[in-house]
C-alpha cells in the first residue's frame, strides 16, 4: 500500500472511533446502549420519589381520622393522623453548642425533595422531546398532589403542602428554563 492509502484508512478508523465516542454507530444512527435509560431518566420527574414515599407513609402508617373514646362515641380528629409519624425523630446529631439537632421524618422527606427539585431544574435545561414529556408528567404529578391535598386527610399537612409546592415550582421553573434554553439554542436575540 502506498502512503496515501494508509493515511485514508487510518483517517477512516479515527472517524469511526470518534463517532462511537459521541454515541453514533457506523451507519450514522444513535447507538442503543444507554439511550433507553437516558430517555426514562429524562421523562421521569424525580419529584415522584418523595411524593411516592409520602404516599406510602400516609396510606400504610397514617391511621384513621375517626376514633372511638372510652364511651364508644366516634370522635373525628381535627388534625391529620400522619402528623405523629412525620414529627418522629429520623436523625439526631449533637452540636458543638451543646444541644441536639433533630431531623424529623417529615423534614427528611422535604430535604430529599429539595435535592430532587435541584436535579429537575438541571434536567430542564435541555430542549428535547423527553423534556417536554417530563414537563407534562410533572404537571400531572402536581394535579394529583393538589387533589390529594384537598380531599384526603393524611395529605393535609405542611410537609405535603411543601411537596406539592415543589411540584408546582418544578413545572413552572422547568417550562421557563426550557424556553430560555431554546431561545439561546436557536439564537433568537433581542431586536
TrEMBL record:
Name this polypeptide is given: Uncharacterized protein
Record bears the keyword Membrane: yes
Record field: transmembrane: 39-61, 101-119, 131-152, 158-182
Keyword Transmembrane helix applies: yes
Keywords: Membrane, Transmembrane, Transmembrane helix
Protein source organism: Hyphomonas atlantica
Amino acid at each position: 500500500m502506498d502512503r496515501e492509502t494508509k493515511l485514508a484508512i487510518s483517517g477512516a478508523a479515527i472517524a469511526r472511533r470518534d463517532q462511537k465516542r459521541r454515541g453514533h454507530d457506523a451507519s450514522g444512527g444513535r447507538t442503543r446502549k444507554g439511550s433507553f435509560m437516558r430517555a426514562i431518566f429524562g421523562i421521569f420527574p424525580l419529584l415522584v420519589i418523595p411524593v411516592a414515599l409520602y404516599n406510602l407513609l400516609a396510606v400504610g402508617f397514617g391511621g384513621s381520622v375517626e376514633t372511638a373514646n372510652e364511651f364508644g362515641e366516634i370522635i373525628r380528629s381535627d388534625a391529620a393522623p400522619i402528623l405523629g409519624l412525620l414529627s418522629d425523630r429520623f436523625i439526631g446529631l449533637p452540636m458543638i453548642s451543646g444541644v441536639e439537632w433533630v431531623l424529623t421524618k417529615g423534614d427528611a422527606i422535604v430535604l430529599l425533595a429539595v435535592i430532587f427539585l435541584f436535579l429537575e431544574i438541571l434536567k430542564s435545561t435541555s430542549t428535547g422531546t423527553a423534556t417536554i414529556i417530563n414537563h407534562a408528567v410533572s404537571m400531572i404529578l402536581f394535579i394529583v398532589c393538589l387533589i390529594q391535598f384537598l380531599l384526603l386527610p393524611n395529605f393535609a399537612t405542611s410537609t405535603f403542602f411543601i411537596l406539592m409546592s415543589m411540584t408546582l415550582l418544578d413545572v413552572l421553573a422547568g417550562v421557563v428554563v426550557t424556553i430560555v434554553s431554546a431561545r439561546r439554542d436557536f439564537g433568537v436575540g433581542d431586536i
